[in-house]
């Protein structure tokens, strides 16, 4: 005789669950890559922006400056990092030394040796504007 209520079939075995840690690890890896990329981009851009300022420097000489005093001023300026060298303009009386430099800011201390010389009558440092509408900025190195 057959049983009118056959035993129910056993339920299929449950599919193995993925460990919740795997999804977490993948999410953290994506987050770290994104954060790292953003940080690197910021640092690279910030460093590039740091060298964008250009400064024009002029050292005016007194009217009685001798050739030896001009040479002393030129020697005092030696070693300053310039864009295209240090120029002497003797066509103007009393004459002047000019140069252009770049950096995040201008360190007036690089001019201390020249400023101390008796032939130097004045120093003018101007930050060159970056845009057409930006004003020129005068830096006071007193």
Description:
It is a single chain. By secondary structure, the protein is of the alpha+beta class. The chain has two domains: 18-50; 52-139, Alpha-Beta Plaits. The chain contains three helices and five strands. The longest helix has 31 residues, at 20-50. The radius of gyration is 35 Å and the shape is rod-shaped.
Widest sheet, order of strands: 2-3-1-4-5
Derived structural class: alpha+beta
Alpha-carbon distance between the termini?
Answer: 117 Å
CATH architecture of the largest domain: 2-Layer Sandwich
Number of helices: 3
Q: Remind me, CATH topology of the largest domain?
A: Alpha-Beta Plaits
Low confidence ranges: none
Strand content: 15-25%
Q: Describe the main β-sheet briefly.
A: 5 strands, antiparallel
CATH-level-4 superfamily name of the largest domain: Lrp/AsnC effector binding domain/regulation of amino acid metabolism (RAM) domain
Number of strands: 5
Q: Bin the helical content.
A: 25-40%
Shape: rod-shaped
Supply the CATH class of the largest domain.
Answer: Alpha Beta
Rounded Rg: 35 Å
Round the mean pLDDT to the nearest integer and report it.
Answer: 83
| Count of structural domains | 2
* SSE order: HEHEEHEE
**Oligomeric nature of the chains:** single chain
Question: What descriptors fit this protein?
Answer:
142 residues; alpha+beta; Alpha-Beta Plaits; 5-stranded antiparallel β-sheet; rod-shaped
Write the layout of secondary structure elements.
Elements: H1 20-50, E1 53-61, H2 67-77, E2 87-89, E3 96-103, H3 112-115, E4 120-128, E5 137-139
Antiparallel strand pairs: 1-3, 1-4, 2-3, 4-5
